[in-house]
């Protein structure tokens, strides 16, 4: 049990470091960067575990109003499947809208992807990932 707690602490520290690394923007020091980074990490692992259904839980309302989980699956089927998350960097914020480079781990190696986010209430939601253009608001 102690080993699991230590591992979880180490992973959390690595994830926080991953949010702050990369890019020359002062936005990487913005507290919103950690929030957006956490969403990208959680969404990536949800997708790796449950496919489009896992990712769907992190999508913005504008996206889920336009597309079902089946449509999301069809739209992203040609993109390399994420098996893990490496880092989120190069944050850009414009009020309640953000973009960032999300580095996902795939069977073919790391892939840099530009994702878009929007603030809904107290949380950030995903508005766009590669392949999802038909559903993006």
The dominant shape is: globular
Number of domains: 1
Q: Can you count the beta strands?
A: 4
Show unreliable segments. Answer: 1-25
Average pLDDT over all residues = 84
The helix fraction, in percent, is 40-55%
Descriptive key words:
137 residues, alpha+beta, Nuclear Transport Factor 2, Chain: A, four-stranded antiparallel β-sheet, 42% helix, globular
Q: How would you describe the overall organization of this protein?
A:
The protein is an alpha+beta fold. The chain has one domain: Nuclear Transport Factor 2, Chain: A. It contains five helices and four strands; from the N terminus they run H-H-H-H-H-E-E-E-E. The chain has helices at 2-20, 31-50, 52-56, 61-66, 69-76, and strands spanning 82-94, 97-106, 109-120, 123-128. The chain has a four-stranded antiparallel beta sheet. 30% of the residues are buried.
Topology:
Layout: H1 2-20, H2 31-50, H3 52-56, H4 61-66, H5 69-76, E1 82-94, E2 97-106, E3 109-120, E4 123-128
Antiparallel strand pairs: 1-2, 2-3, 3-4
Helix pairs in contact: 1-2
Short description:
With 137 residues, the protein is of the alpha+beta class. Helix content is 42%, strand content 30%. The longest helix has 20 residues.
């Amino acid at each position: 049990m102690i080993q699991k707690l230590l591992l979880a602490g180490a992973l959390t520290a690595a994830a926080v470091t991953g949010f702050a690394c990369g890019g020359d923007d002062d936005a990487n020091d913005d507290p919103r960067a950690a929030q957006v980074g956490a969403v990208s990490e959680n969404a990536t692992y949800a997708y790796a575990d449950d496919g489009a259904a896992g990712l769907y839980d992190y999508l913005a309302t504008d996206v889920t109003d336009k597309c079902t989980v089946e449509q999301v699956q069809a739209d992203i089927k040609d993109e390399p499947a994420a098996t893990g998350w490496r880092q989120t960097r190069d944050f850009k914020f414009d009020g309640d809208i953000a973009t960032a480079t999300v580095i996902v781990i795939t069977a073919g190696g790391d892939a840099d992807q530009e994702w878009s986010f929007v603030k809904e209430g107290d949380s950030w939601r995903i508005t766009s990932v590669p392949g999802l253009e038909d559903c993006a608001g």
